[in-house]
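Before surveying the methods themselves, let us examine one representative protein, pairing a chain with its fold in token form.
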Amino acid sequence: MAAVFPGLGSGPFESEFATVSNRIEALIRFLDERGIGARERVRTTAAVVADFEHLVTEHNEILDRARTLAAYIHCHLTTDSRDDAAQAAWSRFQRLSSRLSIVGTRQSAWLGSLNTESLISRSEQAASHRMMLRTARVNAAHMMSSGEEELASELSLTGSGSWVKLYRSVASQMRVRYHLDS
């Protein structure tokens, strides 16, 4: 594990955590500035193609870095669920993950408003993500309003996410005596 970060409270770990958090917030600002989210039909202009390419590149890079953080923290938790530093790091990560979920939801809603085939024909990056684009178009038709989607993401921290965390912690700390007659 030291090959990834020296420890949960280490400078490199905290630096990476801050970098991921800052990049998520910067991407949310980008979404706000560009009006990316649920919309009526959007024409495939050069600006839309550029926004798409920036969004997908940045989102994918953030996801890669967030997965590394999650895996590192998870390794600590699965080794020792009583590790207070790991539990605290996981709670922090869940808040970060909630913000990242909002990005994904807004991205899907926006992609659903685009002319998928036109975007694919105008961008190599879109062509390489054709399956994701077509799936997002279908999913966007079944989404709640943007406010409701954000609320659902935020509530997952105190709702289902908390129950899952509690269950895993309790189950991992259970001890059972077993006597083998031999």
